[in-house]
Design a protein that fits this description.
single chain, 422 residues, mainly beta, Pectate Lyase C-like, eleven-stranded parallel sheet, 34 strands
Length: 422
């Protein structure tokens, strides 16, 4: 009787997962149409007509009938609001490396639209742009971080008077960013100084970040340092380092995200689709409730690997320093492992407390879960009732049209041929 009941439960679970995944896949890539660009090096952008000032200390409105040049470090200061009209193009200097810094108390209102996205891109001509041509966008808020220090200094070589972040304004509206593309940004100055495509420092919960694409970043695409802003409809395309990075007590939700990696594009320190850090190891944290806690729903994490190059891949997710991550409706494919934990997770109870994966499908070529503290921990129960491929498959065997440069499609093929973890 127990065997029949278990079989029925598994059958119903398979049906539920298949239905949920089919329903999700049916609309999977529609949200990326018209505003994204998966081949930005072929785009012939207009030449800059007007250079932005180094210090923006009065409210400024950028119009879409002007193409702007961002050169060097441009600071928005003194509680100023920088507003960017839909369809505006900002070319970013590769000779005098450009970054846009929205300082604490100031705001960036960049509301693009599906038909007219806002674009930050390299100032180099088409077919000559590359990762790290310019710095990136840095947005500094007054939300919470979990360091014993109430505030910290942002990474990079920036003016110290504009570099402080963190505070107690948890519900601050730090920015509104919708339908924005960030192309060829990011730089690794050294191991402790990095510029990401989009760096978000302690953003308040009323911030709005939706429909953002970061492509060809030379460091992380998105990195959150504390804060509690929820985000949705995010694309990271061929980043050199991590696609989504969370640290210093970030506590929020990501809904509908895409990470597309390549097995030959990676940082020497190791790169992941998602990297979570519960706290700064050198400084510690305020209390255990303040460690980073991330919820992710409806995500596709893909490494474009096949049987000739899959050995160059790592885990899809790295979780360190007791970071907590809850994943639902995930499609994870092309990586060596699903998740790698560091030594701070010391038992199966720790893993179950700080990690969950539900209603998801995965296709990996090595051990599903890696633990550093005790390699004998039986980790299979972490993944039970998810679905997986019986053997490793190349990306084009799993998805419908993953190499389409205009609009890649990651609808699952043969969704009925997966096995349920028990």
């Amino acid at each position: 009787m127990k065997s029949k009941t278990l079989s029925l439960i598994i059958f119903l679970l398979v049906s539920f997962i298949s239905f949920s995944q089919t329903k999700t896949n049916s609309n999977q890539m529609k949200w990326t149409k018209t505003w994204t660009n998966f081949a930005p090096n072929n785009e012939d952008y207009p030449k800059p007509e007007e250079k932005l000032p180094t210090i923006i200390d009065r409210d400024l409105y950028l119009r879409n009938d002007v193409t702007y040049l961002l050169s060097g470090n441009v600071y928005v200061t003194d509680n100023t609001i920088l507003t960017i009209q839909e369809g505006t193009i900002i070319r970013c200097d590769a000779e005098n490396t450009a970054s846009l810094i929205i300082t604490k108390g100031s705001k960036l209102i960049a509301k693009g639209s599906k038909g007219f996205p806002i674009v930050f891109t390299s100032n180099k001509p088409k077919k000559s742009r590359k990762s790290g041509d310019w710095g990136g966008i840095v947005i500094i808020g007054s939300g919470k971080i979990n360091s014993p220090a109430m505030s910290k200094i942002i990474e990079g070589n920036f003016l110290p008077q504009y570099s402080s972040y963190g505070g107690n304004k948890e519900d601050e509206l730090t920015t509104i960013m919708t339908y924005v593309r960030i192309e060829f940004a990011g730089k690794k100055i050294n191991q402790s100084k990095e510029l990401n495509g989009l760096s978000l420092y302690s953003l308040g919960s009323n911030s709005i970040i939706s429909n953002i694409m970061v492509s060809f970043s030379a460091d992380d695409s998105f990195e959150c340092f504390g804060g509690s802003a929820n985000m949705s409809n995010l694309v990271s395309y061929k980043a050199k380092d991590d696609d989504y990075d969370f640290t210093l007590g970030y506590q929020g939700e990501l809904n509908t995200i895409l990470a597309i990696r390549h097995p030959y594009i990676s940082d020497t320190s190791g790169s992941y689709a998602i990297e979570t850090d519960g706290y700064d190891k050198k400084e510690g944290f305020v209390n255990i409730q303040s460690v980073s806690s991330i919820r992710i729903k409806n995500a596709t994490l893909v490494n474009l690997s096949n049987h000739s190059n899959y050995q160059h891949t790592t885990a899809a997710i790295s979780s360190k320093n007791l970071a907590k991550i809850a994943l639902t409706n995930m499609r994870i494919s092309g990586f060596a492992n699903i998740v790698k934990f560091d030594k701070t997770y010391q038992s199966i109870e720790d893993l179950q407390k700080y990690f969950s994966l539900e209603n998801s499908i995965f296709n990996v070529h090595n051990k599903t879960v890696i633990t550093q503290y005790n390699t004998e921990i039986k980790t299979d129960q972490l993944l039970k009732y998810n679905m997986y491929t019986n053997h490793f498959r190349s990306v084009d065997d799993v998805f419908t049209d993953p190499f389409n440069e205009k609009n890649p499609k990651f609808t699952l093929k043969e969704s009925e041929n997966y096995t349920v973890m028990q």
